[in-house]
Amino acid sequence: MADDCGCSADEELIEKSPGYRRALWIVVVLNVGYGLIELFGGYFSNSQALKADALDFLGDGSITFIAILAIGWSLAWRARAAALQGVFLCVMAIWILYETVSRILDQSAVEPFAMGAFALGALIVNLVAIVPLLPYRDGDANVRAVWLFSRNDAIGNVAVLIAAGLVALTGAPWPDLVVALIIVGIFLHSAWGILTQARRDLRQANASAASQQVPSES
C-alpha cells in the first residue's frame, strides 16, 4: 500500500515500474563504461574538464546503482539514499575543485582535438542514457537524484565541447579550467536540490509514521 511506505501512488508506480528499473540499468552500464573511457581521455588530452566529466560519469553510474537497490524501500530509506547521493556529489565537487586549483598553478598544454572527440562521445552516450529516463524525471528525492545526475552529465558534455573549441582557438588552457569550475558549480547546485528534497521527504515519512502511531479515538 502507498500509505504503508509513506509515498504517493504516482511515486510508487514509478518505483515499481519494470521500465524504470530497466532505464536505471541502462544508465549504470553506459555511465560506468564510458566513464572509464573518458577518464583515459582526460589523462591522454591533459584536460581537467574531461577528467571532471569522467568522474561525473562514474559517480552517476555508482549512485544510480544505489537507486536500483533502493527500489521498494520505504520513503524514509529512499530519502536517506538520496541524501547519500547528494553528499557524494558534494565530495566529487570538492575533489574536482582541488584538482582544478592545482592545475591553475601548472599551466600545462591541453590537446583540444582529443578533448573534443572524447567530449562528443560522452554527449552521445549521455543522450542515449537520458532517453529512457525522460518518463521518470519526476518523483521522490531518489528518483529525482537519478534524473539530475544524468541531466548534469549532458550539460557538462556540452560545456567541455565548448572548452575544447576555445582551447583550439586560443592555444591556452584556461577554457578547460573554467569549464571544470563550472562543473563544480553544477554539482553543488544539484547536491543542494537533492539534499533539500531528501530532507523534505524524510520529514514527510516521519510525520506519516507519527500519525500512524497516534491511537484512534473510539
Mean pLDDT: 80
- Catalogue the unreliable spans: 1-10
> Helix/strand-derived class?
mainly alpha
CATH fold category name: Alpha-lytic protease prodomain-like
**Estimated helix fraction:** over 70%
Compute the number of helices: 8
**CATH-defined architecture:** Up-down Bundle
Largest sheet: none
Query: What is the number of E strands?
Result: 0
Percentage of residues in strands: under 5%
| CA radius of gyration | 19 Å
Task: Please tell me about this protein's structure.
The relative contact order is 0.17. Mean pLDDT is 80; it is low at 1-10. The protein is built from 8 helices and no strands. It has one domain: Alpha-lytic protease prodomain-like (Up-down Bundle). Helix 4 runs antiparallel to helix 7, helix 5 runs antiparallel to helix 8 and helix 6 runs antiparallel to helix 7 (141-170). With 218 residues, it is an all-alpha fold.
Record the SSE blueprint.
Elements: H1 2-5, H2 9-16, H3 18-45, H4 48-70, H5 75-104, H6 112-130, H7 141-170, H8 174-213
Tell me briefly what this model is.
The protein is an all-alpha fold.
